[in-house]
Q: What sequence folds into this?
C-alpha cells in the first residue's frame, strides 16, 4: 500500500465529499489533532519500510492551506495526538512497530 496526501472534507448534511488541498507529501501512520479550528498532523512515514518522520503540519480549513510547524524532537509513527487547554499532546508511538514507546511531546501551538 502506498501512502496518500489527499485531503477529503465530508459534509454530513449533504452526504457529500469535497477534495481539498493535499498535504505537502504523502504519508501514513501519522496522527492528527484539532485546536482552534486548525488541524495538526504529526509524524508518520512516507514509505512502509522508510524511517519515521518528525515533521508537523498545520491545515487551516478556512483558507484551505498547509503550513509547516516546528518539528517534534523525536520522529515517530502510530502515536496518539489530542488537544487539551490550548496545548497538543503527542503521546507514545515509536520508530517501528516493535520499538519501545516514546514519552509525550507537548506543543504550545497558538
A:
Amino acid at each position: 500500500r502506498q501512502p496518500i496526501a489527499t485531503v477529503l472534507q465530508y459534509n454530513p448534511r449533504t452526504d457529500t465529499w469535497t477534495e481539498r488541498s493535499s498535504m505537502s507529501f504523502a504519508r501514513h501512520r501519522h496522527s492528527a489533532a484539532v485546536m482552534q479550528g486548525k488541524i495538526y498532523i504529526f509524524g508518520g512515514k512516507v514509505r512502509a519500510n522508510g524511517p519515521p518522520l518528525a515533521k508537523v503540519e498545520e491545515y487551516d480549513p478556512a483558507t484551505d492551506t498547509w503550513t509547516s510547524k516546528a518539528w517534534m524532537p523525536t520522529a515517530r509513527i502510530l502515536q496518539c495526538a489530542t488537544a487539551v487547554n490550548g496545548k497538543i499532546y503527542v503521546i507514545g508511538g515509536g520508530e517501528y512497530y516493535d520499538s519501545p514507546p516514546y514519552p509525550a511531546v507537548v506543543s504550545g501551538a497558538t
Q: What stands out?
A: The longest strand covers residues 7-11. The beta strands are 7-11, 16-20, 31-35, 38-42, 56-60, 65-69, 80-84, 87-91, 105-107. The chain has a mean pLDDT of 88. The two ends are 35 Å apart (CA to CA).
